[in-house]
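thread from #wetlab-drylab

HS: before we spend reagent money on co-crystallization trials with coenzyme A, can we at least see a predicted complex? here's what I'd submit
DV: go for it
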Amino acid sequence: MALAIYPGSFDPVTSGHVDVIERARHVFDRVIVSVAPNIRKEALFTTEERVEMLREVCREFSGVEVDSFSGLLVNYAVANGANVIVRGLRAVSDFELELQMAQMNRCLAPDVHTVFLMTTTEHSFLSSSIVREVARLGGDVRGMVPPVVEKYLARKFQTE
Ligand code: COA
């Protein structure tokens, strides 16, 4: 059974991420979408909130589970019996960092392979931070994020 991990900070999950999840579940029997704390970024949502949003979004997707982890991604993958890491590529600008991470992960765990799926062009301009910024300033993010995320963003910025 082909099992893949799709890791990310998902702060929050966007329609671009959902597109990658959709594609991944057609390629692999099981996909674990897993929220990772990114120590280089300051988060808006807690890990629990990010997991809740993803669970709601993935509820209808068979073969997709949602989880979170801390520590090294490759250790998490091996502990779950997964030898594939899925990452989305939006544009050439993503490539350099993704290549570096894939090579580091291969160095740490040669049996874990990174597979890249291209995000649809319709969503290739999206990132979690640009969505957060637009929502924070009262802009309309409909269609850029799943409806449940719109609600979380509205709640978060109402209370700020
Ligand atoms: N649609 C929309 N946005 C997308 C996207 C897509 N398909 N693919 C990537 N992005 C955006 C994200 O929204 C995010 O935007 P932001 O910077 O504005 O927040 C950005 O691209 C990258 O985010 P993400 O894919 O979540 O990766 P990340 O860089 O935040 O996290 C981890 C990468 C979690 C996989 C990495 O930090 C990790 O493996 N951590 C565990 C520790 C570890 O093993 N470290 C060594 C790694 S070599």
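DV: Helices lie at 15-27, 47-58, 73-79, 92-108, 128-136, 147-158.
HS: ok that's useful, forwarding to the group
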